[in-house]
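ok here's the first one, seq then struct tokens
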Amino acid sequence: MSRRSAPPVIIENVLIVDIAADGKAIGKTEDMAVFVAHAVPGDNVDVRVTGKRKNYAKGVVIRYNSLSEWRTDPVCPEFAVCGGCKWQNLIYEKQLYYKRKQVEDCLVRIGKLETPEIPPVLAAPETFYYRNKLEFTFSSSRWLTDEEMRAGGEASDRNALGFHIPSMFDKVLDIRRCCLQPDPSNAVRLAVREFAVQENMPFFNLRTHEGFLRTLVIRTSSTGEVMLIVCFYHEDVPQREKLLHFLWKRFPEITSLMYVINPKPNDSFADLDVQMYKGKPFIMEEMEGLKFKIGPKSFYQTNSAQAYRLYRTVYEFAALDGAETVYDLYAGTGTIANFVAAGAKKVVGVELVAEAIEDARYNSTLNGICNTFFFAGDVKDVFTPEFISRHGKPDVVILDPPRAGLHPGVTEALLFAMPDRIIYVSCNPSSQARDLALIDKYYRIRRVQPIDMFPHTHHVENVVALERR
């Protein structure tokens, strides 16, 4: 006897009342919360349950019974599938409301921290085409649309150049038009895809690790410069030269054209050599009269306009009078360090990526800044009592760690140094709140300022100024 699958569980008339920290909408029933994507607070929906626990369920919306007044039409043609800009259907005013709420929930409700009134989120002047860097993935097994699946799941062209489907490492959505990065990003991506197909260049298979074309990184700057980095799985000089020559001739806007041979299991090329093909080995960014060199491995805030407002906030919160020794931990290419240097006696920067430190030093020299000192290495290994004794006790420490937050060793060194003020910049208010709770006995929160670096996503940057108790 064949076993029949259980009928789907449907919950009707679920009212969407909130948004979770991961960006999913939260619906309420009499006895549980229901988490779904693509819904907006105020929607009334029917949900097919895909997973259930004691107090909550996960599901997908199968019917919209009524729509929220906070809804708006998504601009991106890939919205329903891509998973990147998941809030494009929520009006921008409410996006900012929920980002501020996320910060307040993390710091106050969950973290139990005492804060001043948290101000509104600093809104982005542009909510589309604001990113200066995107990475696209080649795949020989693209994600099929619902229409294609209904037609039998067959397609003559299975190649893709786009973004990974959420939670599926081996499935890539072929992007037609992305609304995140300004020109010539879309034109370059489409031209590369068309040329590669015409020339029978194998796209990478992320499951079997076969193929030739792996990733395409596009970086742009407010100065108009464009960097392209093409990553190949293995060397094939004739094919590689053919593609790079095509790009250089087709797009005169490109000022830096590079390539990487990456035979590793993962896509990261931080530990690999980047080879020049044509142009300069970097692009330039400008901000408040300062110039910044950005190389292929450099970290730079991906929203240039909001990066300026972020750095202005850090400078304001630091309250420098020219006599301070400032430590900039997780310094990247030294953008914050060089930005605040004019107001400090001395700035010491520490960053893991050696190439970024080289850029930071170059940026100081380029801008005639003589009071910055940069050191390469993991912050937890470099920022030690011995290092502090050698380079001077900091009056102000600026922290901008990765999403995971501070290593316990960094927190210990911070409490050894005991600076007068700490400015903590974070892209993850949850880990930020955890770290702040660990030093709450010694530091009080003086100011908070959330900043929207990524419109149409649930992500929010948050700057907290602390002073020693």
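and now the second one, same deal
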Amino acid sequence: MSEFKSGFVSIIGRTNVGKSTLLNNLIKEDVVITANKPQTTRMAIRAIANRENSQIIFIDTPGIHKPKSKLSETMIDTAWSTLKDVNVVLFMIEATSKDVGKGDTYILEKLKEINKKTILIINKIDLVKKEDLLELIDKYKETYDFSAVIPVEATKGKYSDVVLDEIEKNLKPGPRYYEEDEYTDQTLRQMAEEKIREKALRFLNDEVPHGIYVEVESFKNRKTKQKQEIYDIEATIYCKRESHKGIIIGKNGVMLKKIGQYAREDLERNFGIKVNLKLWVKVDPKWDENTQILKKFKYTN
């Protein structure tokens, strides 16, 4: 039998290239939220792939973008901070790129500084011709000495084993850091906050999502009269403007009910327990400058 391997892997790339979608497929669990909006991921989230001969701990990171607030500065710091603690880096780009753009060049310069084993993941290969993909691969190979180059469709799980096998090749013998049945280090409270935000991202207008922050105020476990376990969760969605509050609540409260219903259904599937979810909406124009809130998004190893 092969010697057991383990290690840490950071997934890095520009916003909206599909990092979180890939990670969920690698883990085969709904670990991190996904939405077709830039900057969906705000913090470094660990996800664990338990294999026969290895344990791979992934760190999903916020997408690299031009910072426009203290929050986005914190997010980018978090993304870079993860790199110093990992054994392997997955650098993700889109196959639709015609060239090595400014954003990816900036990331590559950072990767050269840390000098870690790096695997290039090229996503959305279904959107380009084979000859264009091969040309793009050649351009990236000229810029960096990658351990491997793997073209994928992140939405399809059939590429998962290829990526995991390649990572495993680049790991050294090591211990099992987490129990075999663990797939994330997030608390249930954190998972609830993220799931509520995911539904808000999916259902709200473009101008609202990045102005919101979700905080679980109360998370309690109880038993019903029928002796059935249930989680009572109360959470507040903070937004920056009064007009946004109206959009989040919706006419006759329809939008807030929709966000709550879809979040509750997902949480019940994830937790395997009934959930009673209550949501409120509050306005705080400067929540993204609040030091206590920003601490939540900082990376700690």
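notes on #2: Residues 5-173 form a domain with the Rossmann fold fold (CATH 3.40.50.300). DSSP finds nine helices and ten strands in the chain.
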